[in-house]
Amino acid sequence: MSTAAVAVRAPAHETGSYLEHGRGVRSWLFTLDHKRIGIMYLVAISACLLLGGVFALVLRMHLWSPQGALVSNDAYNKLFTLHGAVMIFLFIIPGIPAALGNFVLPLQLGAKDLAFPRVNLLSFWLFVAGAIFFLVVLVVGGVDTGWTLYPPYSLESARGLGILLALSAVVLTGFSSILTGVNFIATIHRMRPPGMGWFDMPLFLWALYATGVIQIISTPVLGITAAMGFLERIFHLGLFMPEYGGDPILFQHFFWFYSHPAVYIMILPAMGVVSEVVSVFSRKPIFGYRFIAVSSMAIAIIGFLVWGHHMFVSGQSRWASLAFSFLTMLVSIPSAIKTFNWIATMYKGAIVLKTPMVYVLTFFAIFGVGGLTGLFLGLLATDVPLHDTYFVVAHFHFVMVGAVMIAFLAGLHYWWPKMTGRMYHEGVGVASAWLVFLGFNLTFVPQFLAGVLGMPRRYATYAPQFTAHNRLSTVGAFVLALGLVVALAGLLHSLRRGRRAPPNPWGAASLEWTIASPPTHHNFDETPRARGPYDYSGLHEVSEDAGWVREEGR
Amino acid sequence: MDATAQPAPAARHERSRFLAVQFEDMAAQLATGKLGIWLFLANEVLFFSALFVSYGVYRSHHPELFRYASQFLDWRMGATNTIVLISSSLAAAWSVRAAQLGNQRTLIRSLVLTVVLAATFMVVKYFEYSHKLHNGVGWGTACNPSPELLASLPAAVRAIPVPAHLGTFFSLYYLMTGLHGIHVLVGIGLYVWLIVRARRGDFGPGYYGPVDAVALYWHLVDLVWIFLFPLLYLI
Question: What family does this belong to (chain B) (predicted)?
Fold first, then answer.
């Protein structure tokens, strides 16, 4: 059955879930169903997370001793480059929007599918192509420039195929991201159900909308910059390489014009997940709905104006640095608005400590620290001494791993019953959340301390006084990895042995919980009438197996 | 979105075979498609933007280099191409109107005219490029103008020694016009596809989304050229 322009009439009422609709590998690889594409994305990004995580563990093992314990210096440089590139381009950026967003967005809108299902499939395959390119980079000897690929170092004549493949991979994954953004914005604009105005949407949709804006406006700049770098390396165009008359700082401006907004591509969907989970598991309507919705847009817009804070010591004018520093401070306002609203949502709520909520509570703690340490780096006076130390490494891992990855895990557990029709084991889920939280802090808090003491990043060896910091960090990395393995094991185990999930296991009010778990191929037989996404009136739990139902007037 | 609940579409009328399953009716599909193409065009503008910014940066750093290098471009060819492309945009707009009115013959004619003009643009481009490359004007480090070409320049320009890094200007020239040229080729492909579908009689007042979307894309390609022409040829 195709959802293409030449549509076959669907039967009025279907039974059987989307997982049973069509069998065999082809029915998955060439599906136009947003839910299956979401699942395929989920598998793909999880594999990339695993790959990037293995790189990270090797790096941490190497840093067990000051002279380096495991690999050559050259191999170390390649490992941290690929760890960064794989984690950023293949896991965190597509993570929540492409995997969870693809699955959930049409369901929350009461829609049968995204606006452009074929574009969605194309986006997935572009992502896979980009991932394959990165794998080939590994095979041909890697890249040792750091994930930022700064010229002139990255485009020197001596460089082989690795850099060209990496730049191509960036272009491919970039276009995948753009197409996802186009699809999400068009769908949210045009396919809201009756009764759902802009301020009646679940906040996850607001987050994805703001993310889509960033994806469309910033990603093409990275695409063309990577293409220019590619051609510069082959033909010596004289655009980025000083020896041919080019300007390497220009590359940095272009790169960060994308790559700073990219961190909001990572965090905004994460914030959207948090908004959903914190309301449902506090059994209380979200506090300050409009402020959270509008602050998503504010972060998206201000986020375009701060890229220069990555270049305070790169040779931009002091006035530019001053302006970028000020604008960077501004981003903290909408971020803080969200945080306070989440906390206020929990105030006097009936908090239920299920796995998604435990993950979200750890998110609050970590995002608070991650955000506040960002201010240290946004201020010129403190950034200059902290620049390129482990303080920076710890800061961005706090917001990328500690906030985004943890929100991803929260969302994954939250929507898992809807995706698979199975309940995961709650005890295992909560244990994984605690392990991740402890392991994470053990990994990165010592890095803050080492950074303040002046340990530089991207070195294969370090001064002996940092031995204790690094060993704590290495132990922490393994605890964090254990937490992730436990989470994965619990989820995979539930596929075979988990309880059957009811349509609404959490007592949530948004539309995706009004249909079966897992949904049918077309989600909704008829376009539903939307009501408030955080309106819990009348919802009560019948039993664990039957989940929550709504009875008007209760 | 209207705020009134719709009955199931099947109850209203038979669905068009061009109506995708996720849409209630043709109007919704058309509006969504148009929004999608506008979003895609926003991304296209940003895709070109880094090249325009590079142009601005290098021109402000080396204004004399740009003035000198621009002498190598033939403004007559550029102007010809500008007129050709604007005319093709008119033909494209005409094709949309013809589709909306269900005027099949005008539709096919205007689509064909669009392709012919687009191809004309590429032919002129080919002569421009080949003339330059023949005379050693490549991009980046491959830019070594031949003595004959230098001799053909106006006397006032000949008096100036050839500036260093002349190739940077031509890198930008080839990148900007080349990326634009690729977009023209894609446009030609899209119009050929539209002609095939139009001959099948797919388009009419009830369904003209693709004609509209491709025309929007084509106008953007036209618009990029309208900026490229003065920036490169007329300095």
Answer: Belongs to the cytochrome c oxidase subunit 3 family.
Whole domain around residue B40: which residue ranges?
A: 26-234
**CB contact at 8 A, B49 and B39:** no
Total of domains in chain B? 1
Contact status, residue A147 vs residue A86, Cβ threshold 8 Å:
no
Task: List Cβ neighbours of B26 (8 Å cut-off, separation of 6 or more).
Answer: B16, B18, B19, B206, B207
CATH tag, A34-550: 1.20.210.10
Residue A2 above 70 pLDDT? no
Q: Looking at the complex, report in whole angstroms how far the Cα of residue B150 sits from the nearest Cα belonging to chain A.
A: 21
Distance CA B63, CA A276 (A): 54
Choose between A538 and A276: higher pLDDT: A276
pTM for the full model?
0.94
CA-nearest residue of chain B to A526?
A: B8
pLDDT tens by residue, A310-357? 999 998 899 999 999 999 999 999 999 999 999 999 999 999 999 999
List of chain A residues whose C-beta atoms are within 8 Å of the C-beta of residue B140: 232, 235-238, 244
Q: SS3 for A22?
A: coil
Question: C-alpha dihedral over A507, A108, A214, A289, to 10 degrees?
Answer: -50
- Token readout for A35 is 């839910």
Domain residue limits, chain A: 34-550
Give every CB contact of residue A362 below 8 A, 6+ residues apart in sequence. A402, A406, A433, A436, A437, A440
A459 touches B: beta carbon within 8 Å: no
- How far apart are the CA of A338 and the nearest CA of chain B, in angstroms? 28
First to last CA, chain A: 42
DSSP assignment of A434-455 equals HHHHHHHHHHHHHHHHHHHTTP
B35: number of Cβ within 10 Å: 17
- Cβ within 8 Å, pair B50-A228: yes
> Which residues in chain B are closer than 8 Å to A171, comparing Cβ atoms?
none
Distance CA B228, CA B222 (A): 10
Q: Which of A120, A167, A182, A521 is the mutation pick for testing B, counting most B CBs within 10 A?
A: A182
Average pLDDT estimate for B208-225: 97
Q: Which residues contact A126 (CB under 8 A, 6 or more apart)?
A: A172, A173, A175, A176, A179
Q: What is the pLDDT of residues A427-471, one digit of tens each?
A: 999 999 999 999 999 999 999 999 999 999 999 999 999 999 999
Q: Which of A115, A219, A228 sits opposite B175 (nearest CB)?
A: A228
**Which of B36, B58, B165 is facing A182, going by the closest CB pair?**
B36
pLDDT in tens, A94-112: 999 999 999 999 999 999 9
Please report, for the domain that includes residue B133, its CATH number. Answer: 1.20.120.80
Task: Point out the residue among B28, B167, B179 whose CB comes nearest to the CB of A238.
Answer: B167
Residue environment code for A402-432, b if the CB has 16+ CB neighbours within 10 A, otherwise e: bbbbbbbbbbbbbbbbbbbbbbbbeebbbbb
